[in-house]
Amino acid sequence: MPSKRRGRSHSDPDRSPTPSAERKRQKYEKEHVDSSELCMTDQKRPRVHLGKYSVGWICALDIELTAAESMLDALHGTCDQDTHDSNTYILGSIGQHNVVLACLPNDGAGNNNAAIVATHLRRTFPSITMMLMVGIGGGVPGPHNPHLGDVVIGTKVIQYDLVKSFDDHIQLKGISRRPDPNARTALTRFKAGHETHQKNISNILQHLKGYIAPDPALDVLFCSSCEYSSTQDCEFCDEHNHIRRAPRSAEPRIHYGKIASGNRVVRNAIERDGIAEELDVLCIDMEAAGVMDSFPCLSIRGLSDYADSHKNDVWQKCAANTAAACTKEFLAIVPPRTIPGSICASNNTPSSARQQQPRIVIRNIKAGDWSHQYFEAKEGSSISDISAGKNSVQAFGSKDIIQIASGLPTTQNIESPDADDSTDQLMDECASAYARC
Length: 437
Description:
Layout: H1 19-31, H2 35-41, E1 55-59, H3 62-70, E2 74-75, E3 89-94, E4 97-103, H4 111-124, E5 130-139, E6 151-159, E7 163-165, E8 170-172, E9 175-177, H5 181-192, H6 194-206, E10 254-261, H7 269-279, E11 283-285, H8 288-294, E12 297-305, H9 316-331, H10 351-356, E13 360-367, E14 372-376, E15 381-388, E16 393-397, E17 401-405, E18 412-415, H11 422-436
Parallel strand pairs: 1-4, 1-5, 5-12, 6-10, 10-11, 13-15, 14-16
Antiparallel strand pairs: 2-3, 3-4, 5-11, 6-9, 6-12, 7-8, 16-17, 17-18
Helix pairs in contact: 3-9, 4-8, 6-9
């Protein structure tokens, strides 16, 4: 009697799958593997070249960083950084500019922390030519009639918490700092198109996902003598203490003037008025002067309160987004800049064309102490008799060899297996050598 064929039971743990079944299982897993696993295992992390970034954008709060990131036209990969650099960076581009975003530590606002963040950023990205401090600030009432959600661009930053003591009074002794010449010349052009830029900022905000401006009725300015009571909400404060002003503009307005910067929050209208009278400022913040200690910067502030006891968080997100949108509009009129002799120029010449061009001879280059020199030859080159002084950096790039001299007894030669990669390698090596100085 013929034996019956037994079907393999799925519950039988002792029977191993047939070769054909195993192949089917492997094929299924390969075709249905989770996309997050593919991202982690199959995709290479994008390579980022530190020398390509020219704009540094520093924020103090997470809502400011979120607003800044929403303005990027494209996000880039991550970068390798020194173990002593505690910053976390977001890299991307706005128009023609490659931008580095950095934020102060949580609960670490103030000039001192801002100076530390700016110092690390500058060391890691030595090609930065423009630094921006963007976020929220307290508006100072006055003839310019600021409203919450407006933007103040700082023509000067004054550290207000330095004082000179007399027998009968204390005098503020502010240290005034200006943005770098590149920012000042761009600001002149920006002012020339003032009305157009205000409209463009509104357009940027309208296309921002999830952006909703607060009710204009919540923009209330109290007289300086009216102090907030902790036992009741501001909406119950006597309306007789409201200051009547001209109606708000339908779109955020841009103001230009001095910004006072210190290490503490100003929540007193009388103190605010005293700072404004002494220093003639339009806005008060907590970080810009600290960045100025490390690198000249342009401070752009969205007004979230009036630096009085009625300060609250209602307008903070709106002000952060408005300041970020203004910064994006400002960068649109700023020409891309790189450091002199920069290695940041794109390497677009085909390798075959470069090989047909004459060789470049680089010799007898002597650098003094603390000098930083960069040379790039897209053609073949001959490099000889190179010397560098103490704490100096020299970088030379050619189609097949990169040479770095950084004040060391010997130079370092890196042979490039691919002619098209030589510029990229030069960027990495040079940025690393610069950071070590």
